[in-house]
Design brief:
Blueprint: E1 11-14, E2 17-19, E3 24-26, E4 28-29, E5 40-41, E6 44-45, E7 60-67, E8 73-77
Antiparallel strand pairs: 1-7, 2-3, 4-7, 5-6, 7-8
The chain binds zinc ion.
Length: 78
């Protein structure tokens, strides 16, 4: 078990979630800057304004450690 670099208390393993309309997902890391999602049918963009383009093969699940003392978060995408 690792310890917090700020207060030296134990760090607990966990993960962040993304809330969908009907589902909950583990957050993932994606390389590069975010770009608008191009989900078009007959030239009409069906994606919402804030939706971003993602290549699922290039994503990595994010594991986050939380300090039990001060709440500091440290994340890894392996
Ligand atoms: Zn701490």
């Amino acid at each position: 078990m690792s310890t917090c670099p700020r207060c030296n208390q134990p760090m607990e393993s966990g993960f962040s979630v993304e809330l969908g309309r009907n589902d909950v997902y583990q957050s993932v890391w994606h390389p590069g800057p975010p770009g608008p999602r191009q989900d078009k049918i007959l030239g009409i963009n069906l994606a919402s304004e804030k939706s971003v383009e993602v290549d699922p093969a290039r994503t990595r699940p994010i594991t986050t450690y939380r300090c039990s003392g001060c709440g500091f978060l440290e994340s890894y995408a392996l």
